[in-house]
């Protein structure tokens, strides 16, 4: 154990990884999303794409436990269940693509997905029609593929909710519920593949400390009357993360 911990403390870019996860915790606490969008582009500078996915999924366990109760009350678990059901089937497809593509290609895909989502949100795209069950299944399936390939488990579902007409409390609750469930699905698949090592698990434990603290702070700061502030703060942080994670800077 001491050897594993000392190896983790020597991880290249550990300070930046902890800083990124700390900022992501604040954003996740008051918006319900943003962890992967902020951390994945930065973490891919120092870790392989699959290592990033493992660490992100494991790191989220503690914070999910801290904010799930409130999210369950505010969200719509039945609706989220349809999204998760479809994602359960397609996550292995995303992981299969991850194994077959080279690292730079995956990083560019991550950049494209994150930047595309951010552009759609800033542009103010909205819809007013109710989503049917087949529609929910399609959205969940797309989220599963993207999540398995890039570790960005939220963009598809986040875009769906933030571009709709639902109240901010419901958006936050549903997003937290979906991301927590998809984390479990991804972890199960990664364990089955043997991708979860003791070193990565220890790195996740180290990063969980700042993440849990800042997530609780972000949740305490959450105020539904400041929806516009939260959204634009999240957009700004995501934009910085996307720019910093561009393969051009290597």
Automatic annotation (TrEMBL):
Membrane among keywords: yes
Bilayer disposition of the protein: Multi-pass membrane protein
Pfam family, one: TauE
Main subcellular localisation: membrane
Compartment annotation: Cell membrane
Family to which this protein belongs: Belongs to the 4-toluene sulfonate uptake permease (TSUP) (TC 2.A.102) family.
Superkingdom of origin organism: Bacteria
A GO cellular-component term linked to this record: plasma membrane
Native source organism of the sequence: Roseovarius atlanticus
Residues passing through the membrane, by range: 80-98, 105-125, 137-162, 174-194, 200-222, 229-249
Name of the featured protein: Probable membrane transporter protein
UniProtKB keywords: Cell membrane, Membrane, Transmembrane, Transmembrane helix, Transport
């Amino acid at each position: 154990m001491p050897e594993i911990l000392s190896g983790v403390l020597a991880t290249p870019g550990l300070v930046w990884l902890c800083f990124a996860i700390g900022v992501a915790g604040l954003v996740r606490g008051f918006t319900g999303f943003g962890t992967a969008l902020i951390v994945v582009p930065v973490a891919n500078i120092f870790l392989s794409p699959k290592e990033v996915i493992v660490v992100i999924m494991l790191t989220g366990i503690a914070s999910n436990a801290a904010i799930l109760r409130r999210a369950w009350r505010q969200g719509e678990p039945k609706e989220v269940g349809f999204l998760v059901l479809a994602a359960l089937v397609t996550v292995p497809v995303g992981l299969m693509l991850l194994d077959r593509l080279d690292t730079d290609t995956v990083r560019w895909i991550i950049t494209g997905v994150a930047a595309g989502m951010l552009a759609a949100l800033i542009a103010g795209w909205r819809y007013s029609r109710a989503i049917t069950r087949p529609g929910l299944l399609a959205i969940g399936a797309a989220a599963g593929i993207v999540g398995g390939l890039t570790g960005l488990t939220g963009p598809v579902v986040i875009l769906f909710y933030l571009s709709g007409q639902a109240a901010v409390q419901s958006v936050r609750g549903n997003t937290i519920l979906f991301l927590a469930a998809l984390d479990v699905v991804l972890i199960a698949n990664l364990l089955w593949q043997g991708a979860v090592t003791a070193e990565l698990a220890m790195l996740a434990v180290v990063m969980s400390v700042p993440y849990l603290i800042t997530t609780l702070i972000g949740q305490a700061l959450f105020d539904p009357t400041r929806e516009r502030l939260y959204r634009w703060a999240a957009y700004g942080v995501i934009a910085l993360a996307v720019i910093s994670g561009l393969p051009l800077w290597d």
